[in-house]
Specification:
alpha/beta; Alpha-D-Glucose-1,6-Bisphosphate, Chain A, domain 4; 497 residues; 2 domains
Length: 497
């Protein structure tokens, strides 16, 4: 069992527009706590699914004069802000911000500060730590030295879709079936699932007042980075990766390499890479004294990866990423996640306005495929069907069950009807042989006095390097195939209307 609850708290969360903060807020709300978010730009929180359930205070931890009012009535303050950068200015900025935060919390009578820091390598002098990790340790010391009891949770690599560390692992593994790597791929790491991190953070609000210390937090597995890449590949259904470590790639060179291979910005990749030079394994598990492990145990690496990848396996993947619904799990994406998070997702989006009713456009959409064809470049569709059959796929031979009506589960040439909302949305999932997952989504909506807005979206989630190569190989044909499809569907609807 987890520790006993002492009642709802009033919590202040900094970094609510970031990866951890954006996921912690709904966790705290679910536990009955009242939440206030501190944000330099409150507008960034506008589209968060929990925005209506929290207070928002405008303030900046680097500007002490903006903090005072934000702490009024607060019991627990979460410090989840930290710069990813290098150099003395970066460390000085974080140092000053931590001091200002600790002072404002003490002045307001806050009962506890909770800080998420980085796991510090055992036996490594602070001078040898990366600037990023050294600064995170210094911020923790500053907060713990203040008048407010502080729980500093120290984690290494956090496994969850959207986490910078995880996204770097994801992109490197998916895009490089064979790679020459730096020595740090042999470094031992104790990763932790984001759901366990959030559980520890939320429960830390209930720690007794005398607790003022650091806690190492990690999952049940200790792995090298190379083992993490191989196990990611296995879990994601990729072939085993060929990894050849070499001693010549310095952290600086490797971060440039990571920046080239992945969309993770170099300003983020460099401090992450530098932090992997040393072994980061928990030296204690004292947090279990107050927050016992779940009955089923902490989340293992493979399960954490599975959860992080779950969104590309769910039936509602093509609409879920753009929705503002409350995520089903801490590993799910949020609207505030950076564009480079969540793995590569290629899209071709077409929109057209037509002077026909939504019903007229929908009739054309629901009748697509089979004998009616796909309304563009018939030879290209036929060729794609033939190629699919050559590699053992279904091709275009299946046609459709009914010439005018579709229902969920129907086969439609080399697609499958995954979702249908009559009069509004048709989503098809590709069943041809592909190095990835693909969907085609067709939707209609009224467009005021202009008639109807038709929206068409092709979505492709590549699997491995072959998936990326496939997308870019067919990309030149998209304007002809998908553009012509949107144009001809709306024209047919106009003619029939």
């Amino acid at each position: 069992m987890e520790m006993l609850r002492s009642g709802p708290k009033h919590c202040l969360v900094t970094g609510a527009s970031g990866y951890i903060g954006g996921r912690l807020v709904p966790e705290l709300l679910a536990r009955g706590h009242a939440v206030r978010c501190l944000a330099r730009n409150p507008g960034k929180l506008r589209d968060q699914p929990w925005r209506a359930d929290v207070d928002v205070a405008a303030g900046d931890v680097s500007r002490p004069e903006t903090l005072a009012g934000a702490f009024d009535g607060i019991d627990v303050a979460y410090y989840l802000v930290h710069s990813l950068g290098t150099g003395p200015a970066f460390e000085a900025t974080d140092r000053a911000a931590a001091r200002a935060f600790a002072a404002a919390a003490a002045s307001a009578g806050v009962a506890r500060i909770v800080y998420l820091g980085g796991l510090v390598p055992a036996g490594v002098p602070e001078a040898r730590l990366s600037p990023h990790l050294r600064s995170r340790a210094e911020v923790g010391r500053i907060l713990r030295a203040g008048a407010v009891p502080t729980a500093e949770l120290r984690a290494a690599v956090i496994i969850g879709s959207g986490s910078a560390s995880f996204e770097m692992l994801r992109y490197l593994t998916e895009r490089l079936p064979a790679m020459v790597t730096p020595r740090w791929v042999s470094t031992r790491i104790q990763p932790i699932a984001v759901r366990d991190v959030l559980r520890y953070l939320a429960c830390a609000a209930e720690l007794p007042s005398e607790v003022n210390r650091t806690f190492d937090i990690g999952g049940p597995d200790v792995l090298t980075y190379q083992q993490m890449m191989q196990r990611y590949a296995r879990t994601a259904g990729l072939r085993r990766r060929v990894i050849v470590p070499v001693p010549v790639l310095t952290p600086s060179l490797s971060s440039q390499w990571v920046g080239l291979v992945t969309p993770v910005p170099n300003s983020i990749a460099r401090p992450l890479v530098e932090s992997l030079r040393h072994e980061v394994v928990c030296g204690e598990h004292d947090i279990a004294r107050w927050v016992p492990d779940p009955p089923t145990g902490l989340t293992g690496f493979d399960q954490a990866v599975t959860l992080a990848l779950r969104r590309i396996k769910d039936a509602d993947v093509a609409t879920r990423w753009s929705s503002a619904s409350l995520p089903g799990a801490p590993s799910d994406p949020l609207p505030s996640d950076p564009d480079w998070a969540g793995g590569s997702l290629y899209q071709d989006v077409q929109r057209r306005t037509v002077t026909a009713s939504p019903d007229a456009v929908w009739r054309v959409i629901e009748g697509i495929g089979g004998d009616n064809g796909w309304y563009s470049f018939p030879l290209a569709w036929a060729l794609r069907g033939w190629l699919d059959r050559l590699v053992g796929g279904v091709g275009l031979r299946r046609g459709r069950r009914d010439p005018a009506r579709l229902r969920v589960g129907d086969s439609l040439d080399f697609w499958r009807v995954e979702e249908i909302e009559p009069g509004r949305l048709l989503r098809l999932r590709a069943e041809m042989r592909l190095p990835g997952l693909a969907w085609l989504e067709l939707s209609v909506a009224p467009d005021g006095d202009h008639g109807t807005c038709y929206r068409q979206r092709a979505v492709f989630h590549p699997r491995g390097l072959a998936g990326h190569a496939y997308w870019w190989a067919v990309a030149p044909f998209h304007t002809v195939v998908f553009g012509g499809m949107a144009r001809n569907i709306t024209e047919r609807a106009r003619q029939e209307a």
